[in-house]
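DM from R.C. (forwarded with permission)

"hey, sorry to bug you on a friday — could you get me a structure for this? deadline for the figure draft is monday and I only need the backbone to look sensible"
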Amino acid sequence: MKYSNPETAAKPANLLLIMADQLRFDVLSCAGHPMVRTPNLDRLAAEGAFFFNCNSHCPVCAPDRASILTGRGIEKTLMRTNEMLEHLPEDEGIGRLPTFDEILAEAGYTATFWGKFHVPGFKAACYRNGADVPFFHEHYCDYLDANLPRREPEDGEYLDRFTGRPYRPVPIDYHCLDEAMTAERRRRNRITQPDHHGHLCFDASHSVTAFQARQAIAAIEQAASGASRPFSITCSFHSPHAPMLPSPPFATLFDPQAVPLPPSLEDPMANNPYIHANNRPHLPEYRDPNLIRYMIANYYALVVEIDYWVGEILAALERNGFAEDTLVIFTSDHGEMLGDHGMREKNIFLEGSVHVPLLIRFPGRISPGSRITAPVSHLDLFPTILDYLGFAVPESDGLSLRSVIEGTTRRDYIVSEWNYANDGRRDDVPNFMVRTERWKYILCRNPEHDVVDCLFDLENDPHEMNNLIGRNPDRYAYRDIAEAMKQRLMDYLESTRHPLLAEVAACPAVK
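My reply, with the result:
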């Protein structure tokens, strides 16, 4: 299918999309963080639109990235889990949907993608470097082998499997924990990337963040030669995803004893569907205030490193004369619980996991200092990009944020989804989240399963410690609000022709 660009007679604008992996909203200083300083992201927010309520459509890597690229929900991309990366046929789901970069490349843009792709490799064909896109980790390891000889760990060091280089653990690392805390994980061979916490034993000039940023900067420099204009460049950082192992000098920026602890750290979660999520009962270290602070300090360090390299990428745009005619977007596929409710990782609809940054700058088209409090979704990026670049927007499940930024549309709510076959089970997890500025409603699609549904008043309960429905004895006092939120969900499911419409319709708003 051909997609026209009405602005082809004029000078086409460029696109720069910068993505982090597992970056939560509230760790930016422009979002009010009391300790982390992110001056380059703050500047990007000040020079364009800063979205206070952006949400992952599905808060896990591959499903959300597929929705970013296509503007379609997971029942259309069929990317319900990360495992679908290896199993989805090319003629199904996302394979049948256009991505914004496929549309741009078809119109003559030079599209390149640097860093973590994490959607099926057959969708990389539109990129000039498409053959290399699915193999960012292999290319990074090749770089390390050429520039940083391997060595065996010394006393007090352990091997990081991601880089193949030694790191020094901090007290929350599984090597440092009591054997009783890790025996079951070791027995089941369940030691994974998130169990590693410490400091890499090599300088940050060789970090994966530095490697990926330099690739994006080189692409900008190449575009300056005139051979790659107009361009679409994506820089997709691996960090601050686990393993959370910053390198010096970033590694020691934050004193673990000084970092703020999550207000919900010791939440008993008695009326919460996620009380057992993410292996929470078997990971007590993430509820321990003396241990979680080490993870938090390392996470902050990785965020500051990303901010530094965002500044270098933006400087490359300016140095090469592209800043004024490039649409710049910064976001993250999902967040990180980081000790909220005594949990780690993502995969759930609580704020630390689903609430992400979104900054958009486009000089002359977006007024500096625009502040958007309306809820928005990653489904909205596909139509937003094409709209601002002058393309006819194909059908999508999102909304162009141009109308929200310019005030011609008032967005009332968004919907996020989770997969329906988690670990082979179909009905034991919440499946949908509906979010307005004030309220969050979380629903399991099976009315017969004993899953706690949720209604949170985010204005008065920002840390989500008081579920107003579920097992709350006063839950029926909130039935009107819950029914209004469920109706929004029904409207979304109907408008997107969602296959689970009938099942959700059968669920009571309050059980």
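R.C.: lifesaver. Confidence is low (pLDDT under 50) at residues 422-426.
me: no worries. DSSP finds 13 helices and 17 strands in the chain.
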